[in-house]
Design goal:
Layout: E1 6-11, E2 15-19, H1 25-31, E3 49-54, E4 57-59, H2 69-73, E5 76-78, E6 82-84, E7 88-92, H3 97-101, E8 107-118, E9 123-130, E10 141-146, E11 152-157, E12 167-173, E13 193-200, E14 212-218, H4 222-235, E15 241-247, H5 256-265, E16 269-275, E17 287-288, H6 291-302, E18 308-315, H7 316-328, E19 336-341
Parallel strand pairs: 1-7, 14-15, 14-18, 15-16, 16-17, 18-19
Antiparallel strand pairs: 1-2, 3-5, 3-7, 4-6, 8-9, 8-13, 9-12, 10-11, 10-13
Length: 346
């Protein structure tokens, strides 16, 4: 028999759960359906940073950008890296009661690749059919594992609606040396069996909210935002929606016909593509510059005030540039939801 489980007590929410030997605190919470703050799950992003107030722990390898030496000396920990060697008392620095109330236990699924197609020169659309349906909220993600000579696991956000839980769709950016994404051009055959684990993520659509909804994406950040957008439309909720999408050139844009159809059907919806490398493109009549600049200009002219939700998904530089823009335009911190895409560590 293994060592007895230790108990983790979370303050100030009063939640208790058990963590097994060689299991991180975050994984234990996921297993028991407790949705704690998290992002990369690899010690890279600091989203799960908390304070250990009592107990003995060991931290697996992590980035000092996520947890520096001074913080570690003050008993800060990353839940995704923390192994418990005794009962623990943990003070949450960030928590969302709505996230906790909508927790879904993380489970393992088996799926089959049914479609791989190109959306642009470096964006691919992947579809996977599951043997059993996956319950998730729009904006969440899963880990996909490819078996073989080397096992590869990567995290990708669903692009489909939660109503389609047995047929998952993903919008994935292809990298030349990406161990997973490079296989999307021929190596990942239809019928390939894959492992799916999830759902993860706290950047999901909040329901029954007032005011405007602003979506901000770049690259494969389109995937969770596409899910959020269609989940919102399906809900029948009436609120203005503005979708800002940052790309380099017109060749990096896709779904323009679909966005045009949505705009025609839903007068309160507007799609705003923003090109950062279009200074000399005389054929482009849309927004130019960086996407966070376009969002800032819109917020200054919109008159939304504090009554706005922002969902931002994409590369870290985009999120880091956008955050102060939102703060300067008085968007409340608890109405900003983001999914920062970080590079894989293996």
């Amino acid at each position: 028999m293994g060592a007895p489980a230790n108990v983790v007590r979370l303050h100030p929410v009063g939640i208790e759960f058990e963590v097994e030997e060689n299991e991180t605190v975050l994984d234990a919470a996921f297993r028991q359906g407790i949705a704690l703050p998290h992002g990369c799950k690899e010690g890279q992003c600091s989203a799960c940073k908390c304070v250990l107030t009592e107990g003995d722990v060991e931290l697996k390898k992590y980035s000092t950008f996520a947890l520096n030496e001074m913080e570690r000396g003050q008993d800060y920990i990353l839940l995704c890296r923390t192994l418990a060697y005794s009962d623990l008392e943990v003070e949450l620095l960030n928590y969302d009661e709505e996230v906790l109330s909508k927790s879904i236990p993380v489970r393992d699924f088996t799926g089959t690749v049914t479609s791989v197609s190109a959306l642009t020169h470096d964006i691919r659309h992947l579809e996977i059919s599951l043997e059993q349906p996956l319950k998730f909220w729009a904006g969440q993600y899963v880990d996909i594992t490819l078996a073989g000579a080397e096992t590869i696991t990567r995290s990708f956000s669903m692009a489909n609606s939660p109503l389609e839980g047995q047929k998952l769709a993903f919008i994935i950016k292809k990298y030349p040396n990406g161990r997973f994404s490079s296989r999307l051009d021929g190596d990942l055959a239809l019928g390939t069996r894959v492992g799916i684990r999830g759902p993860y993520g706290t950047c999901f659509r909040r329901e029954n909210r007032n005011g405007a909804m602003i979506l901000v994406g770049g690259g494969s950040g389109m995937s969770p935002l596409w899910s959020i957008l269609h989940d919102h439309i399906s809900s029948g909720e009436a609120r203005p929606v503005r979708f800002f999408y940052g790309a380099r050139t017109q060749n990096d844009l896709f779904y323009l016909d679909r966005f045009a159809e949505l705009s025609a059907k839903h007068p309160d919806f507007t799609f705003v593509p923003v090109l950062s490398h279009a200074a000399d493109d005389t054929a482009w009549r849309g927004e130019k510059g960086f996407v966070h600049e376009a969002v800032g200009a819109h917020l200054r002219s919109s008159g939304y005030g504090e009554d706005v939700d922002v969902y931002a998904c994409g590369p870290s530089p985009m999120i880091e540039a956008l955050t102060p823009v939102l703060q300067m335009n008085d968007v409340e911190a608890d109405r900003i939801f983001f999914d920062k895409f970080t590079p894989a560590t293996n």
